Amino acid sequence: MTVSTTSIVRPRRVERRLGGRVFRSPTAVISLLWLVGLLVASLTSPIWLRYGPLEQDLTAVLQGPSLAHFLGTDELGRDLLSRLVTAAAPTILIALIVPIVAVAVTVPLTLWASRSLRSEGVMNRISEIVLSLPGTIIILAFIAAVGTNMPLVMAAFGLLLFGALYRVFFGQAKSLQKQLFVEAAAVDGVRPSTASIRHVLPNMSTTVIVQFVLLFGIGIGFQAALAFIGLGPQPPAPTWGGMIQAASRFIFQDPWMMVPTGAILALTIIAANSLADVLAGGTAMPPPLVALRRKKSKTPVTEIAAAAVADDLPAGVSVDNEVEEGFPMIGDASIPSSNIDATRNASPAPDVISIAGLGSDDEADVPPSSPAENEAAVAAATHGAKSELIVKDLVIGVDGGPALVTGVSLRVRPGSVMGLVGESGCGKSVTSYALLGLLSPGLSVRSGAIGWNGADLAHASEKELQRVRGHEIAFISQEPTRALDPMFTVVSQLSAAIKRLRGVSRSEAKRIAAQLLTDVGIVDTPRVLKSYPHQISGGMAQRVAIALALAGKPRLLIADEPTTALDVTIQAEILDLLRGLIAERGMSIILVTHDLGVVADLCDDVSVMYAGEIVETGSVRDVLMRPEHPYTMALLAADPHAITDLDGTTRLASIPGQVPLPGSWTSGCRFAPRCRFAKNECLVTVPLEPRSVGVGAVRCVRKDEVRGRQEEWRLPATTGGRR
Ligand code: SF4
């Protein structure tokens, strides 16, 4: 029998955390004792109360506290204590209907809304409509229709709270959907609905519980208010609101009567709110958010483009870095100085030096291929060998905005390692997300094909992609601790993935989980299995993330900067591990990195990306030993590992300016504004052409002239600047 993965893992940690917080707080303990004590006292009142709630003694009306009546009597001589205690249970139980209905309706709809822009749009409109409804009038009309049936009235009130509650839940659910561990689940092939229940809901459980308790307090107050104005249970049935209303009528004859009736209502609402405060306790926040991830489609397209580019940036680096003063100018004297305008541009890439005649693609964005070209790309991509990835002429863009990646073609042979390199913001990560259909909302593949085992993943349905994710292609992110769900132990996460991907029993999944941890070099397997992600080191977490990626025995692993967040010694261990996996399992790997040392160490082939396009590709030996594109040369000259002594001066190259944002690419060679070899002939659109040496391609019209001039990148700029 197959057991749902959602039944395997439960938010035990949340339960323990909330329980611990409640029992450590005297306020929470007192609040809880008050609420529970009141309920128990009320339910057992027939056993221990001296008077019945309807029992009248007309000889003792409006009396203060006495030994016969501890809290006094009302206008008909009825015992106030008996009436207050008797009314407590119905009040508390009926008040619970409000949060139960509100949460039961809002949570599923919020989870659904947070999964896609379309559902978000629908639910936002519905919540706005509900928020705009005149709640008081609707409730009064409802009471007029159904009478003072309090459970029904409270249920209607709970429904009306949907709009406000949705706003509270949606923000957190949306943030959680952007968390790497939720994305990792999607990469793993988990269906969005399952990922929402398994990973999003447990992480927002604190907020849900806090709101539940707050709504409970609101329900008690609302019920008392209805009874006060005579729309609650009718006399002589005791209700707190009705008793306050009676006390207000006799406020001058017997002011005391207001004290116990008002106090019990106030204390109960205060107890609920205090409990909610303690439960909130500052930890209702989700784990740190991924900055600048997934903007809504309503977000300006420039922001979506910036966010997409920011996917390529290391943590802590933003796309609008301050540009330093006196930025170097192009050093090639062959460019007429009249053609160089070093005036800082106010565009998003202000330090880019523009050459006269270099237009921008801003207005005339890269058009998608024609249907015939697209068909040809699909045909070429889907006729590869088994487990061979062929990307053909891939164009990715912001919907209604600029292209982010244009004409990308890659071929990853089975059992080989392809390095995808370039500076931050070149489009490496966007390309790698597209391979698994994991582009952020607002981004889409415009044309081209991603061929894998006869299918075109660029145009595959979500169902088809789920069959591939985790099973055939897996993904490792650069921040393993954020890719693992903080709510669950390692064994929970691993065994759930193994069960789903391999269809094995729970005990077998646990055994495989332990074996996988051993395979990725973890020695203390039992301890790590029982640990939560925050209890293990970054290197250990990356090993766990790799084990998770191996759960479905994938044939291709996409590793997005897998060593960036790790220190040098751990980096070496992870590279060793990847090397071992390639040898033992015959997997192919796409290694997204900006570290040419890692490329040289691990890769067979390499593709260099700049400003959303491939500028050079070929075998690692050819590209790194005999680079033909000035950008590749500049990256190599800027590599601190490859530094050599030149003319007695050890100099590390720097590339002036920064990668231009999508939409601000020049219409000629996109690297021209930063290229020291740029000339007027570079103003044309530059196609990829076969390399002069070896197999591969290069995108440079001057490749034959600049070949072998790599060391010039280490020379100071001949004009302007400070290089
Ligand atoms: S075409 Fe080649 S030489 Fe010209 S600007 Fe581009 S990279 Fe530099």
Helix content, binned percent: 40-55%
CATH topology call of the domain at 30-47 and 79-280: MetI-like fold
- Strand order in the sheet with the most strands: 8-9-10-5-11-12-16-15
List the ions, cofactors and other small molecules found in this model. Answer: iron/sulfur cluster
User: Could you report the average pLDDT, rounded to the nearest whole number?
Assistant: 80
Query: Which overall shape is indicated by the principal axes computed on the Cα atoms?
Result: elongated
Which features does this protein show?
disordered N terminus; alpha/beta; Rossmann fold; MetI-like fold; binds iron/sulfur cluster; 8-stranded mixed sheet
